[in-house]
Amino acid sequence: MENKKNYQKLLEKELDLIEKSGKKPKLLLHACCGPCFTIPHEILKGHFEITILYNNSNIYPKKEHDRRLAELKKYIKDLNADIKVIETNYDNEKYNLDLEPRAGDKEGHERCRICFRKRLKEGFEYAYKNGFDYFGTVMTISRYKNAQDINKIGESLAVDYPTVKWLYADFKKNNGYEKSLIIIKEHEMYFQEYCGCKYSYEAYINKHNTSK
Ligand code: SF4
């Protein structure tokens, strides 16, 4: 079996190098919601000029997509942080064309890898066209998201964008997830109960046997 890498250690090494360089590179950071942005922001804020990319057409329904975005923006405002949020056009139907063949997958399997790849590829495109030094995502903070998968996908995509470095990370390490819960509580943030897509939404509804 392949050894798992500690991607948070790779992030720490990268942050050391950046600190020694005396520079503050431009980071495009994909964020899926406010709660998942909390700890990544705490770790990265001193090292980068951060811009957020909110490209999450996976989230269903649209009002949930908008609610998560509003919560993210509210948190940034609460922090009084100078962070721009780039929003892409929401098109859940088009997004799902690629997920539909794996509609029956459980969370964490191939459908999720397709979903990660789609949003990360879009992020790399944007970062490349707009002169960012690094591109990364906050998603590894989730207990349900496989940091090995996410980092391998990021690493493989980076090959096509030579001026943009993939920012390795596994934000759930060092109790990142547990620390995020404290901030979420302090800021009274809305914290969603399903990952995002209509498949995860339906699984959540079925599990809790509530009406849509
Ligand atoms: S469960 Fe989450 S990561 Fe997996 S396909 Fe759905 S939205 Fe994407």
List the main descriptive attributes of the protein structure presented here.
single chain; 212 residues; alpha/beta; Rossmann fold; 5-stranded parallel beta sheet; 8 helices; 5 strands; globular; binds iron/sulfur cluster
Structural notes for this entry:
This protein has 212 residues and is an alpha/beta fold. It has helices at 7-21, 34-44, 62-79, 92-99, 110-129, 147-158, 176-186, 198-208, and strands at 26-30, 49-54, 84-87, 134-137, 165-166. Strands 3-2-1-4-5 form a five-stranded parallel sheet. Helix 3 (62-79) links the parallel strand 2 and strand 3. The longest helix has 20 residues, at 110-129. The N and C termini lie far apart (42 Å). The mean pLDDT is 96. The structure holds iron/sulfur cluster (SF4). Iron/sulfur cluster binds next to helix 5 and helix 8.
Short characterization:
With 212 residues, the protein is of the alpha/beta class. Helix content is 50%, strand content 10%.
Structural class: alpha/beta
Radius of gyration computed on alpha carbons: 17 Å
Question: What is the helix tally?
Answer: 8
N-end to C-end Cα span: 42 Å
Overall number of domains: 1
CATH second-level architecture: 3-Layer(aba) Sandwich
Q: Which small-molecule ligands are present, each listed once?
A: iron/sulfur cluster
Q: What is the general shape? A: globular
Query: Which percent range describes the beta-strand content?
Result: 5-15%
Q: Given this structure, which CATH class is correct?
A: Alpha Beta
Report the average pLDDT across residues. 96
- The helix content is 40-55%
Strand order of the main beta sheet, please? Answer: 3-2-1-4-5
How many E-type strands?
5
